[in-house]
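On clarity, I found the account of how folds are encoded harder to follow than it need be. An entry of this sort, consisting of the sequence and the corresponding C-alpha cells, reads as follows:
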Amino acid sequence: MHLSLTEDVLSGTYVYTSQNKPIILRGSLYEDQFSASEYDAAGRITGTFKGQLDEFENIQGLWRSADGRKQYPFSIERIGSRNRLDTTHSHQFVIKNAAPQYEARFSVANCEGDTCTGLATIGLYDKSGRHIQTFFSDDLYMTLDENQKPSVNVVQLYNEQSALVFDDFNFDGQTDLAIRNGNMSGYGGPSYDVYLYHPAKNRFEFHIPLSLMVMENLGLFRTDVKRKVLVTFTKSGCCWHQTSENAWRNGQIVLIKKITEDATGANDRVLVTTEVLTGTKWKKSVKTYKIADYYKE
C-alpha cells in the first residue's frame, strides 16, 4: 500500500498480491482517526477502511465491503516520515511553457544520469507568477534530455511519456493535467494521476476513472480532439493487441469502440474483431487478414 498525506487528506493505491492490480484509495487522517474508501474503474466505492493510529503511528482497523457483507481486520505499518511530501526535494525544475496559461515548478527526490524518480512536489503557477495549486507524486519518474531538462506533454506508446501532461481530457475547453506516478500500468508502463480542472471551484480535482484507465492500459491515453474520444492501448504478449475508444456521456467516461487484433494462431493470419456501441447495443464484426498484408509498413 502506498499512501500520501497532504494536510489531513490521504491518497494512494494498494494491491492484492494475487491480482497485482492497483486499487485507488482516497480518505483522511484526522488526529488518530484513519478513514479511506477504495474505488473501482467507474469511480464507485467498493470498500472502506476505518482504523486508528497506535502509539507507534501504525494503523489498525477494519475493512468493509460496500454492501456490508464482508469485513476483515487490517494493519498498516508506516514506513517513512508522515510529512515527507510537504517539502522541496533535492532536484528542482521549471517548465515555463507547460501550457499556454501555466508554468510548472517542481522538485523530485532522486536524479541519476538522465533519469529522475521518487517523491515529488509540483507547484502550478500562472504566467504572472501567482500560485495556483500544489500537487504531489510518490514517484515522478521521468527522463531528461541532453541538457538535463524534462520534457512536457510527450505521450508516445512504448516510448517516452512526460512527467507532466497538460491537455483537455474531457473536451470542455479547459486545460487538465496528468502527473506521472510510477510505473503501474500494463507491462510496467507509466501510470498517472489525472486531474480535471473545475472552473466553478477554480482548482484541479483528482479523477478516479481516468487514473484507473491509465493503470489498466499501456500508459496514458491519447486524446483525439477532433472526434472527442480518448484512445487506449493494451496487449498480451507479442501477438494480441486491443485499441479502445472512450467518450464522455453525461459527465461519465464510456467505452464506445474496441478493435482487437489476434495473431496468436498457428497460421499466418490475424483475426480482427471490431465492436462498436450503437445506442445501447454493441455491434460486432470479425474479419481475417494475412499478417503480411495487415501489418504493412
